[in-house]
Structures are given as structure tokens and as C-alpha cells.
């Protein structure tokens, strides 16, 4: 259609992808003529760029005036955003070619709310194969804010179990709305993960130039968020781990903070022990220790393996032994949560796809991926696997993930994310008996 006057009627959603200079007039006309229920404003350069405030003032004035009309005016996402991808709504305005950002194969109870479009799509890529229900990029928050979205989605879609939020700052007075919404969500047993950027003077300055964010006092903000039950991520990598693992561990609340762990690498056992706090590395009970000793005796390695927590199973451990050890830990009364390290280079585990150059097949029914997949289906306690390896072993990590098993890249990160899960609101004994949705 050549212009707005050619529209046959009011649309549900208007996506504006014009040069910054042309955007204010277009949006203002859309608002004043009540042509859209909602508007996504893609262009940047409206408020985050010095001198751009004048471009946006006309839009803001028209939007404010529309609130007094019978329709109440449209809601606006942006500007300076990539828009929204909604699986329940069946639409995607991110405009990223499918071959650049393939759709995840595993639907996940996740909503991502981010101030940055680039942050959103890089997270989507790193979270694969998980496919969040919602991805909303809010940009400058000229109308719809982080707090608005968290409050709305928290009430409107109870199938979202994990809310991953990235902000470079809050719109004026929106911090309180965000905290109130987060407190309600966490009280319901769901999780809010927050990565708050702009925490330094340099970062705050950069955020103002990116999304016109109000940085505020980051230290005070983090403590208020923590008090509301929000899980805080210190880095983007931590954010990825927390969102992914929390979504995959949903309905497996920990009944305490007692951690048991095993790895086929002694260095990972030491790393887990070094980073275990605030979890408790408890000694194995007599029954557990006896069962583990019997496994090692049967494998003929009882003379080289000591039974203690964390447990070094050595590179000798094959798939059956690895699964037997993991099953023993997860059945132990002293286990609230567990970590299983799988350094995949050992020739005792099939961790590579079938090929002519070697006799391995990670997809074989007796390979470790399948063994652990069956164990995941049998168990209800929270546990994660560590696969600390390069791209050659990505198919192995993917095979575990495809069965629902959370995979973390390093032992220290696995310990941190499991500690956060055990400490989060909802991971209490009384929640463990909550019936599934």
C-alpha cells in the first residue's frame, strides 16, 4: 500500500522499519488516526543518539494524547529494537534469516525480555536447541517497559516458567513495577533471571548511548532484585547457563543443598570441590559407599579408586559404569542435587558420531548418551552434566540436551548454576511435592 490512508481498517500490529527521520511522522499519523492496536518501532537514532530527542518528542506527545481517546491508543514497543517473536501468537518480527538463526527443536518455557536486539538473537543462538515461547526486545522503552512485560507475561501465560531479562537500565519509576512483578512470579515457584548491564561508569555511559537507559544505582538495584527473589547473572555466559538449566530443571526442585558429584577427570572433582559453596559436599552414607565400592570392584578398579565425594571414576569408566555411578548418587538419601562430569576424549565412552575412521557411535543404544537419557527419565532430582570439550564434541552435548539433560561447559559453571537453583525460591522441600502442571 502506498500510504497509511490506503489501509482498509485498523490493524492489530504495525511494524515500522523506516529511516529514523521518517519514523516520527509515520508513527504520529498512525497514532492520531487510530490505525493500529500495537506498534513495533524498529529504527534507532530516536533517543539514544545525541540530538535525537527532538525526533521522538512528537511521537510521545501523540501517544500521550491518544491515552484519553476511547480506544486508549496503541501500545508501542521500541524504538531501536528488533521487535517480538511469539510462539503462541505465531509471528516473528526479528527479521533474521532462518539459515542464520535456525528455529530451536525443543520448545522451552522461557520468555526473554531484552533491551538489546543483538543480545536477544545471540542468546537465542546460544540457547539452541531450546526454543523460547517469547522473545521481546524493548529498545528505548518509549512506551512498553521491562516491568510492563514482566508483569503482563507473568499473569497472562503461566506456561512460562523462566523469565530471562537483560536491561541496561529501567525507564523512570519502572524499577518498582519490575520488582513487584518479579516477587509475584518467584512466589509462584517460577524464576526470574536478570543480567543488569551498565553497572560501571563506563557501562552506564555506553548504555545511555545504546538504548537511552536510566542506569540508576546498580548496587542498590541488584540488592533489591535479590530481595524480590530474582536470580542475578554476572556475565552473559552465566545468564545463558541459568536460563537454560533453570528451564530444563523445571519441576525438579531441590529439597536441600546437599551435593554429590562424580567425574571421569580428577581435575573436575577438584574444581567442583573448590566452587561447591554454598552447597554442601556431604560424605557418602554407608549404603551409598558400599554400592559404589561394589561397582568399582566389578570393574576391577577398586585398587585405584577411593570412594569419596566428589568421586573420581577415572578415564577407565565406560558407559555402563558411568550410568551405574550416577544412578547410585541420585538414589542416595544424602543427595539433593548432583553433577556428573563427562570428559569425552576417553576411548571408553562413545562420544563421537558414527564414522568410518573409528568405531564409535554416540547414538548407539548402549552408549553413554542413551544410558543417561534413560536415567534422566527415571529420576526426579535435579542434576546436570559437564561436557568440557571443543566443537568436535558438540554433537555429544546436543544428544544429551535433546533428551532433556542440562549440559554445562565447565565444572565451575555447573556448580554455580546448580547452587543458584538450589537457593532459588521454590526449591524447598514443600515445593518438591507440588503436582506437575
Biggest beta sheet summary: 7 strands, mixed
CATH class of the largest domain: Alpha Beta
Neighbour order of strands in the largest sheet? 5-4-7-6-8-9-10
Name given to the CATH architecture of the largest domain: 3-Layer(aba) Sandwich
Question: If you consult CATH, what is the topology of the largest domain?
Answer: Rossmann fold
Beta percentage is: 15-25%
Could you characterize the architecture of this molecule?
The chain has 437 residues and is α/β, with parallel strands linked by helices. The chain folds into three domains: 75 residues, no CATH class; 165 residues, Rossmann fold; 175 residues, Rossmann fold (3-Layer(aba) Sandwich), CATH 3.40.50.261. The chain has 15 helices and 16 strands. The strands form three sheets. A seven-stranded mixed sheet has the order 5-4-7-6-8-9-10, sandwiched between helices. Strands 11, 12, 13, 14, 15 and 16 form a six-stranded parallel sheet that branches. The C terminus is likely disordered.
Secondary-structure map:
Layout: E1 11-16, H1 23-32, E2 36-41, H2 53-66, E3 75-78, E4 84-86, E5 91-92, E6 106-114, H3 117-127, E7 130-137, H4 146-156, E8 162-167, H5 174-187, E9 191-196, H6 201-211, H7 218-227, E10 231-232, H8 236-248, E11 258-263, H9 266-275, E12 280-281, H10 286-299, E13 311-312, H11 319-331, E14 337-341, H12 368-378, E15 383-386, H13 394-402, E16 407-408, H14 411-423, H15 429-432
Describe this structure in a few short sentences.
The chain is of the alpha/beta class and 437 residues long. The protein is built from 15 helices and 16 strands.
Amino acid at each position: 500500500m502506498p500510504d497509511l490512508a490506503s489501509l482498509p481498517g485498523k490493524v492489530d500490529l504495525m511494524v515500522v522499519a523506516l529511516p529514523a527521520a521518517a519514523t516520527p511522522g509515520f508513527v504520529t499519523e498512525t497514532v492520531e488516526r487510530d490505525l493500529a492496536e500495537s506498534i513495533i518501532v524498529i529504527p534507532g537514532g530516536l533517543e539514544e543518539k545525541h540530538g535525537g530527542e527532538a525526533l521522538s518528542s512528537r511521537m510521545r506527545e501523540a501517544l500521550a494524547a491518544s491515552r484519553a481517546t476511547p480506544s486508549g491508543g496503541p501500545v508501542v514497543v521500541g524504538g531501536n529494537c528488533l521487535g517480538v517473536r511469539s510462539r503462541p501468537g505465531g509471528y516473528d518480527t526479528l527479521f533474521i534469516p532462518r539459515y542464520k538463526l535456525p528455529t530451536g527443536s525443543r520448545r522451552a518455557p522461557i520468555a526473554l525480555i531484552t533491551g538489546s536486539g543483538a543480545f536477544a538473537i545471540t542468546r537465542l543462538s546460544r540457547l539452541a536447541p531450546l526454543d523460547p515461547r517469547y522473545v521481546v526486545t524493548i529498545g528505548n522503552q518509549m512506551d512498553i517497559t521491562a516491568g510492563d512485560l514482566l508483569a503482563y507475561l507473568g499473569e497472562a501465560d503461566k506456561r512460562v516458567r523462566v523469565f530471562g531479562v537483560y536491561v541496561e537500565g529501567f525507564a523512570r519509576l519502572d524499577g518498582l513495577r519490575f520488582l513487584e512483578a518479579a516477587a509475584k512470579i518467584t512466589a509462584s515457584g517460577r524464576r526470574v533471571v536478570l543480567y543488569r548491564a551498565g553497572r560501571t561508569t563506563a557501562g552506564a555511559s555506553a548504555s545511555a548511548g545504546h538504548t537511552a537507559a536510566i542506569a540508576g544505582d546498580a548496587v542498590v538495584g541488584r540488592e533489591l532484585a535479590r530481595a524480590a527473589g530474582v536470580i542475578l547473572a554476572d556475565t552473559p555466559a552465566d545468564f545463558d547457563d541459568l536460563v537454560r538449566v533453570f528451564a530444563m530443571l523445571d519441576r525438579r526442585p531441590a529439597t536441600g543443598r546437599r551435593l554429590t558429584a562424580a567425574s571421569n577427570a580428577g581435575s573436575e572433582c577438584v574444581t567442583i570441590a573448590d566452587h561447591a559453596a554454598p552447597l554442601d559436599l556431604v560424605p557418602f552414607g554407608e549404603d551409598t559407599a558400599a554400592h559404589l565400592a561394589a561397582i568399582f570392584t566389578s570393574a576391577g578398579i577398586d585398587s585405584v579408586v577411593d570412594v569419596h565425594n566428589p568421586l573420581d571414576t577415572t578415564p577407565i569408566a565406560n558407559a555402563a559404569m558411568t550410568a551405574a555411578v550416577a544412578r547410585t548418587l541420585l538414589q542416595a538419601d544424602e543427595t539433593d542435587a548432583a553433577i556428573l562430569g563427562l570428559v569425552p576424549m576417553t576411548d571408553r565412552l562413545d562420544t563421537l558420531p558414527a564414522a568410518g575412521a573409528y568405531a564409535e557411535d554416540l547414538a548407539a543404544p548402549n552408549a553413554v548418551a542413551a544410558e543417561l537419557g534413560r536415567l534422566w527419565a527415571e529420576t526426579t532430582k535435579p542434576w546436570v552434566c559437564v561436557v568440557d570439550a571443543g566443537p568436535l564434541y558438540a554433537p555429544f552435548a546436543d544428544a544429551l540436551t535433546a533428551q532433556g539433560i542440562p549440559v554445562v561447559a565447565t565444572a565451575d559453571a555447573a556448580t554455580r548454576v546448580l547452587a543458584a537453583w538450589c537457593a532459588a525460591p521454590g526449591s524447598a522441600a514443600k515445593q518438591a511435592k507440588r503436582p506437575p502442571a
